[in-house]
Amino acid sequence: MLVNSVFTTNGDDVPGGRIETRYVFKSANLNQAEASIGHWIIYYRPTRRARAALPSGYFAMAQVEGIDLEPLRPGYRLARMAGYRGFDRTVPFKEDGHYYEAALRRADASRNRGAFGQGVRNLHKDEFGQIVAAGLTAVSADASWQFPGSAALPRPGHLYAAEDPALFVQDEPLLSVPRAIETRQVSRPHRDWAFPVVVMAAYDNRCAMTGSRVMDRYGRWEAEAAHIRPVARGGPDLVCNGIAFSRSVHWMFDAGLLSIADDYTILVASRLRPEDRRGWPPLHEKLAVPARPEWRPHPSFLRFHREHVFEG
After folding, report:
1. What 3-state class would DSSP assign to 275?
2. How far apart (Å, rounded) are the C-alpha atoms in residues 308 and 155?
3. Where do the HNH nuclease domain residues begin and end (predicted)?
4. 251 partner at 20 to 30 Å CA-CA among 27, 32, 61, 104?
């Protein structure tokens, strides 16, 4: 049975590499970790590992692809991780008296220090959903928003909305998608929270136009997921309608200064002179795309961008 878990960061996961690709843990926690293979976990930074600029709490999520022996360290295992997604904010284990993990709270409302000491803790799917909603503030700001449950999360091997490859090889797949309207201070088309997670995983958290792959000390990537056909103009939350761009490239793409040909050649607006591009990040000649064809930008969405967004 697949379950979500909390992986506590510690001194063991530092020497072997960064936690976005690997997590080292004691073999005593193997059963709990194995239960999450193929599923999502949440990273937790304990107080003893926190720094002034890195508060303790839940700060990121990732997928467990598999578990191997740690060859250089008897008594330890190595979890292979993918799809790392830093939260928009660090979520404390307790807010307004509410413990996100019930196991961390004793019957007398005191802190369960024994549970805190477990390096890997399995989670109920509702607890997992509450933490993710609290960490991804773009979706949790709406108090009426409901987490869909762990079964709705994408898993390794088939990204969200990409289970049927035939969907992406049609000439015109889902060119326009009607969206429910969510109301806050303004009304706008609803965006699926999983879209940035799976697009970033497909592109290995790397800007497809520049190759930049930079993470800050909080575990947040400089690149971000961009829609090819904009959401405001009917673009769906499909992997083939998404690309990972650095923030400056994302802005230039949305502004119509950049676009992409069907053969993935990068196009620059013709009105821009060489001096206008001074200071731009160096661009590849062609877009770097995922290995799996069904995850690559679909020609119909690229054509929409060239015809309706790109300056030409």
Report:
1. helix
2. 33
3. 207-260
4. 61
Contact 244, 206 (CB under 8 A): yes
pLDDT band at 157 (very low <50, low <70, confident <90, very high): very low
* CB proximity list for 55: less than 8 A, separation 6 or greater: 45, 90, 92
Distance CA 161, CA 128 (A): 21
Global confidence as pTM: 0.49
Task: Indicate if the pLDDT at residue 38 is higher than 90.
Answer: no
Beta bridge partners of 23: 79
Burial class (CB in 10 A: 0-12, 13-18, 19+), 99: middle
Region 247-262 average pLDDT:
96
The helix (H) or strand (E) run that includes residue 90 is strand 76-91
Q: How far apart are CA 9 and CA 43, in angstroms?
A: 7
Residue 133, pLDDT > 60, answer yes
What six digits make up the tokens of 183? Answer: 């109301």
* Domains by residue range for the chain, with CATH: 4-151 (3.10.590), 157-308 (no CATH)
Q: Which two tokens stand for residue 215?
A: 């993470």
Question: How many Cβ atoms sit within 10 Å of the Cβ of residue 46?
Answer: 15
